[in-house]
Automatic annotation (TrEMBL):
Active-site residues annotated for this sequence: E240
Keywords tagged on the record: Carbohydrate metabolism, Glycosidase, Hydrolase, Polysaccharide degradation, Xylan degradation
Part of the full-length chain shown: 48 to 392 of 407
Ranges for domain GH10: 1-345
Keyword set includes Cell membrane: no
EC number of this enzyme: 3.2.1.8
Protein name per UniProt: Beta-xylanase
Family membership: Belongs to the glycosyl hydrolase 10 (cellulase F) family.
Taxonomy of the source species: Bacteria, Pseudomonadati, Bacteroidota, Sphingobacteriia, Sphingobacteriales
Reactions that this protein is recorded to catalyse: Endohydrolysis of (1->4)-beta-D-xylosidic linkages in xylans
UniProt keyword Hydrolase, yes or no: yes
Biological process, per Gene Ontology: xylan catabolic process
Molecular function via GO: endo-1,4-beta-xylanase activity
Amino acid sequence: NYKKGLKDYYKNYFPIGVAVNMAALKGADSALIVHEFNSVTPENDMKMGPIHPKENEYNWKNADAIVDFAVKHHIKIRGHNLLWHNQAPGWMFKNADGSEVSKEVLLKRLKDHITTVVNHYKGKIYAWDVVNEAIDDDSTKFMRNSMWYKICGDDFIPKAFEYAHAADPKAALYYNDYNSEHPAKREHIYKLLKSLVDAKVPITGVGMQGHWKLNDPTPELLRKALDEYSSLGLKIQITELDITIRMPRSRPANLNTQANAANANLLPVPDAGFTPELEQKQAAQYKMVFDIFRQYKNVITGVTFWNLSDKYSWLDSRGGGLAGGAAAGQTSSRTVRKAYPLLFD
Ligand code: XIL
């Protein structure tokens, strides 16, 4: 019954996006996408493993279907992603005899992959997440010790941006990561971004994923991150916004293992459903972050929700979205703690 969608209310600010999978491209879900959103991100179908399962085989089917849907409905498209430690195909890092590839071979394969994929969607994808989650969560470390890093050192990051830029000079190129507003990780991401900017690597901006909680981030931390990243002259997109209702609570004194220590204050509350109290807290957190996004409209160039509605959220299979699964207090792998993280149910 609503005449206007989110995208219309936000037309003087930035595109409002949504992560989509194939299931959402039909029926009521597709109508909801078209009504509310003017940007889409394929949730999985452009990742390296799904789209490039074998060295000489690309699987364009799902990604093409999402792109065709978006083009037909005049919806912008963010590509996600060109390089990640997860959902990367095993063959990428191995020679025919099973041994590990050299740096030269891996960079050649990366170049082939990025050139082929970016070129396939040239002119249709306005922004790419080029490198995803390369910074370590451990604040005593810097780069994540992924296969990319193990084999290439940190060279793979500037190279990935250069390959993408060469394939489509008009596409905006982003570095994308989570917990990017938490001080220790923020400083590391800032340091990486600054080195790229200083080296004149073709990077447009930073994607702050935005997998958030009812009390996290605070407005101060969110503003600080937006200020720091934009001080580098970079644009910012919120790329994967969801706010779980699994409110962190204090760790009971008897839980004192190392795994739990890492997740102090991150124990999930029991699933009592989506109560009015939780709904109100979630609305307040959504309001807070969007109030800030609007104040930063000169640097924020897009806000994307990580999926269309609660039924599709990736968080439900992860204890409602708290890092660490079992370590975060999930008692059994069969425990489902629903996250109710999105605007639509
Ligand atoms: C998630 C998808 O939502 C899941 O369906 C998939 O099983 C795993 O990946 N950071 C990212 C996204 O950059 O690609 C992830 O998406 C969520 C975390």
